[in-house]
Amino acid sequence: MALIGRVARLLRADLHALLDQLEEPETLLRQAIREMEEIIATDRVRCKQLLREQALLEEREQEVRQSLSSCESELDLCFEHGQEALARDLIRRRLEAAELLKAMSAKHASVVKSCGELTAAIEQNHSRLATIRQKADLLAAEKFEEPADDCRYSLDSRVLDQQVELELLREKQKRGAA
């Protein structure tokens, strides 16, 4: 049983090593860059939506406050003329407007908080993207340098010991003749 487990572990390790060799780091980094750019673009769109929603909420809150202030003057008028039925309707409207204003204020605070968090996430993702781009540039530079190194190594490997010995003898002969 232990032997089967060890063989299975070896096969998994070999499979993972094969997959690692098949994956191209440069391609993976380019894909990561594309995904990060998409995330940042989506977050920016969402942030713009939240800012529009925030502006609309502020506008609506101002309208409700104006409605509440006009309701107060209308209530004064109703009480001056003894119109309690009308005053009850106005009080109902004022209470509903106060509840609406309370709900909108809570929503406004939530939108402001979400927008702040999203802005922080955008900045963080932007710095991650810059890091990934730097890694991609380094990888591309290393890949560009590798062929030159490979050529040097392949040139070194073609020189035979006999050739070195012959060249040494020629150099000795030149120096001895001069």
Commentary on this structure:
The structure is a single chain. By secondary structure, the protein is mainly alpha-helical. The chain has one domain. Helices cover 95% and strands 0% of the residues. Helix 2 runs antiparallel to helix 3 (84-158). The longest helix has 75 residues, at 84-158. The protein is elongated. The mean pLDDT is 84.
Secondary-structure blueprint:
Layout (H helix, E strand, L loop, with lengths): L1 H21 L2 H56 L3 H75 L2 H17 L1
Helix pairs in contact: 2-3
By DSSP, the count of extended strands is 0
Residue fraction in strands: under 5%
Tell the overall outline: elongated
Report the sheet with the most strands, covering strand number, pairing sense and barrel closure.
Answer: none
Q: Into which percent range does the helicity of residues fall?
A: over 70%
> How far apart, in Å, are the first and last alpha carbons?
78 Å
Query: How many domain units?
Result: 1
For the residues shown, what is the average pLDDT? 84
Order of helices and strands: HHHH
Structural class: mainly alpha
Number of continuous helical runs: 4
Radius of gyration: 38 Å
Show unreliable segments.
Answer: none
Short description:
The chain is mainly alpha-helical and 178 residues long.
Pick out its properties:
178 residues; mainly alpha
